[in-house]
Design goal:
By secondary structure, this protein is mainly alpha-helical. The chain is built from 29 helices and four strands. About 70% of the residues lie in helices and about 5% in strands. Helix 25 runs antiparallel to helix 26 and helix 26 packs antiparallel against helix 27.
Length: about 550
Amino acid sequence: MARQAVDFGEDELRALAGAQSFERGLGYLDAVTGLEVGDGSVTAVVHGTDIYEVELALGGGAGISGWCDCPYGQEGNFCKHCVAVGLTVLRQAEAIPSRRAAARARASGLEVWLTALSRDELLALVREQIGENRELRRRLELRAAAARTDTGAVRDRILALIDPRPFARYGYVEYADATGYARQVEEAAEALRALASGGLAAQAVGLAEEAIQALGQAYEEVDDSDGVVGRAVAAVAEAHLEACSVVRPDPERLAEWLVGQVLGDRNDAADLDPLDYAGILGPAGLARMRQLAAEARRRRPSGWAERYLMERLVKAEGDVDALVALYAKDLVPSGVTHLRIAEELEAAGRVDEALAWAERGLRDTADEAHVDGRLVDYVCDRYVRAGRMAETVVVRRGRLRAERSLAAYQGLRAAARAATCWATERKAALAVLREDVRRGRGGWYGGPVLIDALLDDGDLDAAWHEAADCADDRQWQQLADLSRETRPADALAVYLRLVEPLKEPTGDRVYERMTRLLLGARDCHQALGTEDAFNAYLAALRAELKRRRKFIAILDRHGL
């Protein structure tokens, strides 16, 4: 019954959040307040480092999705706060249908009540609300000014909304104030849209351009780590595009303004794409833009913005040879430009030329340690399609020798297995990685790639043999995790050794890691039949760290 009421369970929450965020979410169950059930969603407040608002969309057979205004959640992640609210919903699952029905009844009752009010009563209610809610009052003032075509008042209000100074307590809009500033910028975007839809699209175009210019300057003084202000500025740019589509301004003047924005020093906020305006610019506007872009490219051949603008325009014209020539003027050492050329040629049906450019990319980057993996995959995929398996192995082997990474090793293994020569290739590949160990070269994540490769192969005996002299703590723990059943004594020694240095530092991440190690140690003792020894060790550890209440609570939660 509970499952049907909410249409998800702990497994879905764990899959969405990942093991780490799920475990952290367990620690926030008591921090969830204000749970409100709506029609297909729930909202709540979670008290963490700050107070965060969470909304979960659920029901209807579509599983669950979530949003949180914490920094991690605003990046699109299903965070620990979402997990905490989801678990709270599961705890109260039997009551969800009745609470949802009650929410629908309240909404219906509100609609009936509002419909029954007279005009004077509605006006009194609105006046009461705008007297108490400053943000609502500002929005209605803007709508009123737009409705009476008072462009002067709208302009003053829009410029006031995008002015960062009220939020810049120390001459700079700090991270904590960025969301409030973004709300005001969004209000400005709404006002511009209202102006355009109210028959004043030409005025909206001019005001939007003025606002975008001002926002470009203001954005330099904003800590927009979460991107909320950038999204609000994008809404202003979208309002400009909508107004232009209505009024159809002079195409050459619009082209000049767009080029100025793209090539200017303050386009980071709006991030305008001139091709969004292609239908409005028409042939005359696009020709003028191409002329301006060519002039700018001649003045600054190495300028990033100039190159970007020209690439966009040439691509829009559909001239593949011109686009290839443009890309070829500035080949990036990672091979990404070679890949772009190959993709453009292949899309045009010129597959042989495409493969030739990709192969050239591999030759040009043969000695580079960091090559765009998509270029390597592109060539190897075409070789496989053509049955050129041996050449695929040659490419993958070369990347391993240049890159010395687990990903390169995995690529070689897949290719060599397909070519039925992995036994020989593996021996040579491991010899290359052992040479790195002798030279003291570590992998990208600390420990030598040799250990990661052996673990990835599932060759645990060889990994234990090689790890003695070179593995780092991450690799030791992974090796112990994989060997708890087959080599419990060896794994136990690793777990106990890794616990010791974690006794000194504090913090949730430390406590969670120590708990995971202790769970592994418990499994090893169970496999060895020495549970009493583990119980004694754990009792001594709890006594030693008894003042760390958060750690003790985490142990309790995991049954330790």
